[in-house]
Amino acid sequence: VWHHFHNSTEARNDHTLLASNSWEIILEENVPIIDACFQSGFNCEGYFYKEFKKMYSMTPKQMLKMKETTK
C-alpha cells in the first residue's frame, strides 16, 4: 500500500509542495540547509536536494550562493 501511495500523483504533489516551502525557510529564515530539509517535511537530505533541484533548477547551496552574490 505504501509503495502505491509513494508513487502516486498525490505523493509527488506533496513533495512538490514541501520543496516549494523550503526556499522560504532557506532564504528568509536563514537556517542551515539540513534544518530546512527537516522543517520542510523531508526526512532524507538527498531526496530533498533532488526535489529542490527539480523545482528550482538549482541546488539549495546554489540558491544560497546566488543570494550572497546579489546582496
pLDDT under 50 segments (min length 5)? 1-13
**What class would the helix/strand composition place it in?**
mainly alpha
Terminal residue distance: 48 Å
CA-based shape? globular
Mean of pLDDT: 76
Which percent range describes the beta-strand content? under 5%
List the helices and strands and how they pair.
Blueprint: H1 2-6, H2 9-28, H3 33-39, H4 45-56, H5 60-69
Helix pairs in contact: 2-3, 2-4
What this model shows, in words?
The chain has 71 residues and is mainly alpha-helical. 76% of the residues lie in helices and 0% in strands. It has helices at 2-6, 9-28, 33-39, 45-56, 60-69. α2 (9-28) crosses α3 and α2 (9-28) packs across α4. It starts with a helix and ends with a helix. The model is unreliable at 1-13 (pLDDT under 50).
State the gist of this model.
The chain is mainly alpha-helical.
Give a quick set of tags describing it.
71 residues, mainly alpha, 5 helices, 76% helix
